[in-house]
Amino acid sequence: MVCNDFYAEGALTVSLLTLKNVGYQVGQQQILRDISLNIDAGEWVTFAGPSGGGKSTLARIIASLLSRTSGELTFDGQPIDSYDPIAYRRRVSYSFQQPTLFGETVRDNLAFPYQIRQLPFDSQRAITALEYVGLAGADLDKAVIDLSGGQRQRVALLRNVMIYPEVLILDEVTAGLDAENKAFVWSLIDHFNQDDGITILTITHDQSEITAAKRLVTIVDGQIVPGGAS
Amino acid sequence: MNLAVNNQSLVLALGLVMIALAIGWKEKLGIDRDMIIGVVRAVIQLFVVGYLLKYVFRIANIWLTAILILIIIFNAGYNAKQRSGGIPQALPISVGAILISTGVTLGVLMLAGAIKFIPSQMIPISGMIASNSMVAIGLCYRNLNAQFKQERQAVLEKLALGADLKHASRDIVRASIKTGMQPTIDSAKTVGIVSLPGMMSGLIFAGVDPVRAIKYQIMVTFMLMSATSIGSVLACYWAYRGFYNERKQLQVPSN
């Protein structure tokens, strides 16, 4: 098989995520149509476009929180439907705009990824991570209601990366943050991408983030704008 | 026997309904029709059940008793399902949960020698257990529906982090079980000091020594605790999966 030889020798690389004519329809309403895109491992892709254009829907389809109604979506060379959704979401993690923190303390949140995998909580890693994002190690037992907006966003982001995913989807995670927190979160995402090799998909309305995008995909009315994908 | 309710006193007691109707009419509550239907239905249903029980108690047949218990359980399950707000498979879940909660509770009571498999004991006790289980399951369903809507984003975030359905739903399921059991726990806490509940009042009313009556009430308290806890746990753990599709994505049922 020539084709298999090509894969084996690495002459032909397979994109980490491949979307081919992906569409999403609710009743008569077409939310997404003909989205075709290849995303390679280690890339940082920024999705931009007006509100209601279908960016979050697309992100949720990629995160397996919604199922596309047409087209094909493959991850690591296999159709997304061939993966167990739970196992898939541990590899492709999605972070919400204005995240909800669980339980009562920061620990409840950072321990959650361990609990669901039935692994012992690595509190030392959690303390190191908290310090890295500008919080104190003692904040591990801080009540979540006592956190500021910026601190909540940092804890939520850490929750997504306590156990590294391969893909991290960030849905307007800097929206509503002040300039200082925004810059900090952005540098954190850059660290995940550059130093940890996590593939990043960000959704943003922020002009400075759009300008700084390494690869920009613009979605308007459920379609990729011609020339809007670089 | 101190009871002196005859047909004439029942007709006079109908005056109490008139008071309720007058209040409903004066306050423009719009429930006059419901009240009249409720009263007529209650009178007809109770007369039918009175004569039916008289017949069943007289012939004392095991199979007929068992069939009547199953009918009670099915009806309770059907009524609980009506409160499910579109949760998939609510009828088999409700009937199954009430069947098991009633079966286990009756089984333990029989093994303990508290009751015997005779219609005059089994049918009323089954009715009490099944109806309490039914109310508890109805409350569980209402809470599941409300919480899955309210906590939609938290559930989605847990799923997005790779939680399985049990982990993603755990807090909601726990809160719903608690909601289902709460009325029974509250009434157990206040029994005797706020209310003299049905069975105890009935026995005292019929002239039984209050000290003997409380023993029956203690048994009822225990059995209702068991019935509502088993019914709530089973119904919640069977029902929460209905809030997800086959791709383990959240879908809130439509009513």
From TrEMBL, chain A:
Keywords: ATP-binding, Nucleotide-binding, Phosphate transport, Transport. Residues 17-229 form the ABC transporter domain. Gene3D superfamilies: P-loop containing nucleotide triphosphate hydrolases. One of its GO terms (molecular function) is ATP hydrolysis activity. It holds the Pfam family ABC_tran. One of its GO terms (biological process) is phosphate ion transport. InterPro entries: AAA+_ATPase, ABC_transporter-like_ATP-bd, ABC_transporter-like_CS, P-loop_NTPase. This is ABC-type uncharacterized transport system, ATPase component. It comes from Levilactobacillus paucivorans.
UniProtKB/TrEMBL annotation, chain B:
Pfam families: UPF0014. Its main location: membrane. GO terms for cellular component: plasma membrane. Keywords: Membrane, Transmembrane, Transmembrane helix. It comes from the Bacteria. It is found in: Membrane. The keyword Metal-binding does not apply. InterPro entries: UPF0014_fam (IPR005226). The keyword Transmembrane helix applies. This is ABC-type uncharacterized transport system, permease component. The lineage of its organism: Bacteria, Bacillati, Bacillota, Bacilli, Lactobacillales.
